[in-house]
């Protein structure tokens, strides 16, 4: 049986999820792709850390060694931050590899560059995992809504913020205590600034913007407000009125310009995002024919995010002529 | 520009929706298909009824006239009931046409026959519109979850029943009065038996069963119970306990057999279907990697259902060699 050689950049939670999912779903991948998928290399940062990686896999800190693997066809990128993620993805595409990324910060800024380069090289870039974890929002928009005009997207794109808001309301906790519980559950980073200040949701909204509207608004003009300004009293007052604060990323076209915001919004029970609780994410898509649909599910996590990457790969993969000469 | 000739079988709510959507989304279809879509014929039942159909379109009660259209490539079937829907679809496929159907009763029983015949003839059968109206559940399962093992599907598949349950709880109405409001809103048929007795949801569940598990359970062994047995007192008692009755279609594999049921289920607030209200439908899909995702949206209606048919068509269409000789 043919072997598809893949490399994994980063071996954090998501990287490990992909590594394990490829092993546990070997048969399903075979059935779909008529090929074995082999993780041939894992790029890591700290060579001294103990990892559960098969001895047949090249484990290296040197990206050049990864790219030098003969017949490498796919790169799964699960690194955090713009660099070196962007450079690695670009080099992989240049070399003729498909790229599947979970890196929202990088993709919000450089997605267009990667997509254009991929088109030029005849490979594909999968970025389902950048936005809303396991929820297949990217491919729902790009594949299931090709005729509908999408007019607006409203979404809860950060599970940490949503968890904190739920915990504040349900357990009557002030912000800091609710955040501490999120930390204890592993739902918040040691430094949760990107999550609770709205930057994480902002990146995902910009990725959706490019997909839906073909462009992004001026980043400086997008109103971004986190949940830190909400007091327990605010949330309890809303609750008594039957309302809830949700941290909503919103984008729509207003005349010739895109209006985008990421901020706490007070919503009534009939709002599609009112009932989205805990670490879930949800995306409401408004289309010209379909009306309004909402996708809800895990916005992060080892296997949901790995699911997005593996499904992206399985749906988009096709053998490509290797362009080794280019690198 | 190339023209794709299509025929429309049935000109009820859904048929009219498709007819209008093809006109209002002409540009989007052109962009996607690089072709004009022309509704060349509409098959009707009552020739005396006044209809808003362009005079250039063949309007006929004779299906043979439809099939005889030179170069016909696509048939949109929006008739109710097993026959003549099934025979027409089968003949269209035999002739080498793609078929897009919204006919759940027919497709629950004969879907396999049509899919196999279509494979043999090199055409495709789109059936997104048979299940959950505008919600792209069929293609989410078939295209976005190709690696995940789907373990279970739980769904609200009948908007009428869901509306009635919501109205009973919110407005403290007995079943018959809530149903009357559904009728006034156009959410219930004059004879709503198929909806409130669970048969409609059953058909959709059987369609999902074939898609997810490759087979259907013995129809006779599926527990099907409508919402008619629920009293206002039942619903109010549940409400006081913070619970809600939802009419849930459920299917999962239990060892070697499929367990399926369609019945009212008492669910707590943390259940994914608890907050689905009014005429909405929702489907929760449990996958081996993704965990649990829920799709919520309009389960019926002119344009949502037309959306499902048109999107199916746009995504699946490819020019086929006409096999006129076969008919």
Descriptive overview:
Chains A, B: InterPro entries: Asp/hSer_DH_NAD-bd, HDH_cat, HDH_CS, HDH_short, NAD(P)-bd_dom_sf. Chains A, B: NADP(+) binds at residues 10-15. The structure is a homodimer of 327-residue chains. Chain A has helices spanning 13-24, 26-33, 63-67, 85-94, 104-121, 137-144, 159-171, 175-184, 193-196, 199-213, 232-240, 302-316; strands spanning 3-9, 36-43, 58-60, 72-77, 98-101, 125-126, 150-156, 223-224, 244-254, 257-267, 280-287, 291-298. Chain A is an alpha/beta fold and 327 residues long. The first copy, chain A, has two domains: 3-133 and 304-326, 3-Layer(aba) Sandwich (Rossmann fold); 137-298, 2-Layer Sandwich (Dihydrodipicolinate Reductase, domain 2). In chain A, strands 3-2-1-4-5-6 form a six-stranded parallel sheet, with helices on both faces. In chain A, strands 8-10-9-7-11-12 form a six-stranded mixed sheet. In chain A, helix 5 (104-121) runs parallel beside helix 10 (199-213). The interface between A and B is large, with 45 and 45 residues.
């Amino acid at each position: 049986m043919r072997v598809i050689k893949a490399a994994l950049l980063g071996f954090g939670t998501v990287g490990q999820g992909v590594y394990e999912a490829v092993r546990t779903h070997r048969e399903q991948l075979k059935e779909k792709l008529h090929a074995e998928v082999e993780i041939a290399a894992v790029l890591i940062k700290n060579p001294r850390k103990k990892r559960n990686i098969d001895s047949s896999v090249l484990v290296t800190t040197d990206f050049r060694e990864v790219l030098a693997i003969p017949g490498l066809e796919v790169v799964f990128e699960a690194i955090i931050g713009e660099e070196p993620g962007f450079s690695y993805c670009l080099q992989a595409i240049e070399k003729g590899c498909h790229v599947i990324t979970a890196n929202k910060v990088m993709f919000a800024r450089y997605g267009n560059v990667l997509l254009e380069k991929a088109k030029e090289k005849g490979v594909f870039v999968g970025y389902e995992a950048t936005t809303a974890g396991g929820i297949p929002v990217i491919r729902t928009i790009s594949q299931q809504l090709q005729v509908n005009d999408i007019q607006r997207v409203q979404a809860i794109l950060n599970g940490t913020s949503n968890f904190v808001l739920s915990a504040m309301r349900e357990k009557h906790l002030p912000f800091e205590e609710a955040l501490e519980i999120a930390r204890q559950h592993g739902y918040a980073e040691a430094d949760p600034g990107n999550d609770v200040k709205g930057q994480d949701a902002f990146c995902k909204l910009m990725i959706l913007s490019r997909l839906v509207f073909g462009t992004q608004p001026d980043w400086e003009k997008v109103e971004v407000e986190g949940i830190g300004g909400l007091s327990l009293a605010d949330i309890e007052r809303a609750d008594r009125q039957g309302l809830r604060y949700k941290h909503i990323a919103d984008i729509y076209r207003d005349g010739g310009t895109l209006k985008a915001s990421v901020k706490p919004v007070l919503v009534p029970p009939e709002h599609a995002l009112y009932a989205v609780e805990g670490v879930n994410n949800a995306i409401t898509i408004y289309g010209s024919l379909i009306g309004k649909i909402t996708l809800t599910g895990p916005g992060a996590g080892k296997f949901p995010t790995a699911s997005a990457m593996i499904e992206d790969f399985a749906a988009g993969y096709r053998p490509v002529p290797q362009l080794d000469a280019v690198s």
